[in-house]
Amino acid sequence: MQKYRSEVSNLFKLMVPILIAQLAFTVMGFVDTVMAGAVSATDMAAVAIANSIWFPVLMFLVGILMAITPIVAQLYGAKRQSEIAQVVQQGIWFVLIIFLPMMALLYYSPMILDFMHVEDRLAELTTDYLRMISLALPFACGYQVIRSYHEGLGITKPTMVIGLIGIMVNVPANYIFINGHFGMPALGGVGCAVASVLVFIAMCISMIAYSYFHKDFKDIKLFDQVYGIDKKEMSHIIGVGFPIAASMFCEVTLFAVVSILLAPLGAITVAAHQVALNFSSMVFMLPLSLGIAATIVVGQYVGEKKPQQAKSASITAMWMGVGFSVITAIFTIVLRSEIAEIYTEDMTTINIATGLMLIAAVYQISDAVQVIAAGALRGYKETKIIFAITLFSYWAVGMTIGYTLALTDLVVPAMGPAGFWIGFISGLTMAAILLSIKLSSVFKKTTLGHTVELTATA
Predict the structure, then answer these.
(1) CB atoms < 10 A from the CB of 311, how many?
(2) Cα separation values, 455 from 87, 255, 300, 434, Å
(3) With 50 as the cut, is the pLDDT of residue 211 above it?
(4) What is the pTM of this model?
(5) 74 neighbors 305 (Cβ within 8 angstroms)
(6) Range 340-357 average pLDDT
(7) Residues 247 and 214 in one domain
(8) Structure confidence at residue 456 as a pLDDT band (50, 70, 90)
């Protein structure tokens, strides 16, 4: 029992700063939604649809860069600190190579709206938002490289501090550019994109400065030597990170495609879906933060060759996640009406969103289990299986069930957005089951004396 108490304390210490940082990001999304919604339901819907395109692209790149966390954690646990700077700099090189093609992809992505029969004003606002937010991409990725480096060392407070800096930039910037204050044009929902660009610039610069000047990072000497492109090390990062990115892309695009498929049903339906999704995303930050903490702790134990402690940390994180999710589910059910009213005053939107949040409460336990299991597996660098499971669970199971219930009469009369949310429950539950089974098999393998490779060829 004592070992589990120790793991709870360790996980909690790492999790809290990550949670505050994750909530800061979610609060920024909340502010965007509310302030755009105050202009019109169409502006809110434009932000929702644009983020449904922008966010998967960002998360795919972030997923690759998240590989730096377990790689650094295992090197740190194995006392191989001298190799960390090169790994991090390869992440920076990756960003410099990839950001221009990805910006171009975002710039031209609004062409998809032509095939979705989206109403003209909504399509116009969505296009303007996407073309502006594309400028944020290199700064968002640069921030993620340094964040992953910090977290791999088990230092999570900088992520929290800089997340709070992001809020301090986001709120006034939204106020200025959405409403047109201090001589700026009133851009409506597109002003949220301008604010986001400024936020990511500020956060990227702050994170780099923190790494350079703070005493916690002096021993690593991240910038003392400039390393050129190392194909072997960059391949290692991509090899570990691509499955993470692909699995995140599967999850994010599931929600994104649903927003796009709902667009022909009108701005009110999309806005209600966005309200429920935004709040659910805020709640999800708790198990997500715990999953990131599990990656750090498990990775460092693996580096130290302590498989029993890695197993204990994984199990502890899972039970913590289940406990937290039961509490948040009850909270969602009891206060769903009051929560919806925070986002909008439109009663039609509130009524639809309230029903969706009732469904969202149901899957919170499965969602917690799957994200924490995935986090623990990332600590072991067991990432390929995560992609396979999420692809099957989210798309073969979740989207198939969701689309069938939402937009067809094959099983029941078309349910609209509620059908998709039932699909979410199905997909997340399947992912939770399969990822838990895989994690159990990793426990057996590692505790029987097998080791996880630490070399760049792993």
Answers:
(1) 20
(2) 12, 36, 14, 28
(3) yes
(4) 0.80
(5) no
(6) 83
(7) no
(8) very low
* Structural Rg of the chain based on CA atoms: 21
| Contact by Cβ (8 Å): 90, 149 | no
* Residue 23 to residues 137, 170, 276, 287, 453, Cα–Cα distance (Å): 20, 13, 16, 12, 34
Among the listed ranges 397-401, 414-418, 431-435, 452-456, which one has the minimum average pLDDT value? 452-456
Contact (CB, 8 A) for 343 and 37:
yes
- 215/255 same-domain check: no
In-domain check, residue 382:
yes
Of 268, 424, 421, nearest to 350 (Cα)? 268
CA dist 5 and 389 (Å) reads 31
Furthest-apart CA atoms within the chain: distance in Å: 67
Going 33 to 34 to 37 to 38, the CA torsion angle's sign is: negative
Structural domain boundaries enclosing 3: 1-220
Task: Please calculate the CA angle 437-455-302 and round it to the nearest 5 degrees.
Answer: 45
What whole-number distance in Å separates Cα of residue 110 and Cα of residue 187? 18
Which residue, 348, 316, 323, is CA-closest to 443? 316
Dihedral class, residue 452 (left if φ above 0, else alpha if ψ from -120 to 50, else beta)? beta
438, two tokens: 């895989």
- For 312, the enclosing helix (H) or strand (E) is helix 307-343
Place of tokens 């171009």: 104
Average pLDDT for residues 142-171, to the nearest whole number? 91
| Overall number of domains in the chain | 2
| Helix/strand/coil for 220 | coil
Q: Is 117 left (phi over 0), alpha (psi -120 to 50) or beta?
A: left
What tokens appear for 159 in the block?
């992520």
Contacts of 149 (CB under 8 A, 6+ apart): 68, 69, 72, 84, 88, 91, 211, 222
- 457 within domain boundaries: no
Residue 451 burial by CB count (10 A; 0-12/13-18/19+): exposed, middle or buried? exposed
At 457 the pLDDT is 39
Quick: pLDDT tens for 312-321.
999 999 999 9
| Residues 210 and 277 occupy one common structural domain | no
Same domain, 189 and 237: no
- Is residue 237 assigned to a domain? yes
